[in-house]
Structure formats: C-alpha cells, structure tokens
Amino acid sequence: MSTPNPVPTIASWVDPTTNTDGSPIGPDEITSYEIGVRDTTAAGSVAGTYPFGFKAPKDATSEPLSVITPILPTGVQLAAALRANTAGPSSDWTPEVTFTLPAPAPVPNPPSGFTVA
After folding, report:
1. Average pLDDT of adjacent 10-residue blocks, the chain of 117 residues
2. Residues sharing a CB contact under 8 Å with residue 110, sequence separation 6 or more, in sequence order
3. What CATH number is attached to the domain comprising 78?
4. Entry pTM
C-alpha cells in the first residue's frame, strides 16, 4: 500500500553564498527572492515565464505557496522556480520543481424544499 504524497504548502531554499564568478556574496547584496510558478498544461507555457509569483524578503528561506498570486490553479501540474534579486542583475532561475495541488473536494448543493412550519 503506497502512502499518498503530502499536499505541498511551502517553497523553501538555501541562500547562495557565491556569485557566478566565484566571489562571495556580500551581506546586503541580495535584495529579495522571486518565486515563479507556471501551469505546465497551459497553452504557451514555457520555463522562465511565470504568470504566478511572489517576491520574498532577502532574509527569507521559505514562503507559503498561499502567498503566490494570482491563486494557483489546482488539479494540474505546476512548475516552480526561484531566483535571487540584487540591486544589479538577478540570478538565473533555479531548475524547475514540479508539483500538483489537488482539486478541492466537491461541495454539495444545499438541500431544496426546506420549510419551517
């Protein structure tokens, strides 16, 4: 019997410590992080173009997926990536991570014919 995958709720990462040239990152060099998400099933969806996203503060190492706007679609495969922003250029996006948010359980319509006598 397999265990169901837990519903993803948090994006987390490890701060980079060096620049692409190998030099150390200064204490205030990173100004924020940017989380980008795309629906991989949407027409025209390509890596590096993220219609859903959020900027996280420079001291963050995780953020709840619930802060991403607009609200993420459910029941489809999503791909997320992260990049570090500086006062100059931003880093490249991380490799994408794919996940699916389950569709909410159906909600029944209210009963009909209700009366009070």
Report:
1. 73 95 94 97 96 96 93 93 95 96 89 94
2. none
3. 2.60.40
4. 0.83
